[in-house]
Design a protein that fits this description.
With about 130 residues, the chain is α+β, with helices and mostly antiparallel strands. Helix content is about 45%, strand content about 20%. It has five helices and three strands, in the order αβββαααα. Helix 2 packs across helix 5. It is globular and about 35 Å long.
């Protein structure tokens, strides 16, 4: 089963469906993990209380980039209030594998970046911190 999840993560790392600059974005944030060099810039198009569009660019390890890909798939089309309520455990569940403490910041960089993008856009802050 672990091999299946590893393949799933590698597929999102190699071919992330929402990778690229989002035209018409009205919210954006760049997140970084200085310990390992992972970087993600998340762009959102917010309209009518929903995430109408989402894209990301970045570089880093397979875990950070796959996490961003999976998270962008998860929030696309969702109400902003639902996206802002996502927790660290939600992201870990999307990844579907055990993450070591050393890789936890890699896995949660996308969630932290999403939360900052929403706050920068004046959206409600999440009730729970990312990590």
């Amino acid at each position: 089963m672990d091999d299946l999840y590893r393949d799933y993560i590698l597929e999102h790392y190699r071919r992330p469906p929402n990778f690229g600059v989002l035209e018409g974005a009205n919210a954006s944030h760049e997140g970084a993990n200085p310990l390992c060099g992972d970087r993600i810039t998340l762009q959102l198009r917010l309209a009518d209380g929903k995430i109408a569009g989402v894209g990301f660019t970045g570089r880093g390890c397979a875990i950070s980039q796959a996490s961003a890909s999976l998270l962008t798939d998860e929030v696309k089309g969702k109400p902003v209030v639902d996206a802002s309520a996502l927790t660290s455990q939600d992201v870990l569940d999307l990844l579907g594998i055990d993450i070591s403490p050393a890789r936890l910041k890699c896995a949660l960089l996308s969630l932290e970046t999403l939360q900052h993008a929403l706050m920068d856009a004046g959206q409600p802050a999440a009730a729970q911190p990312a990590a």
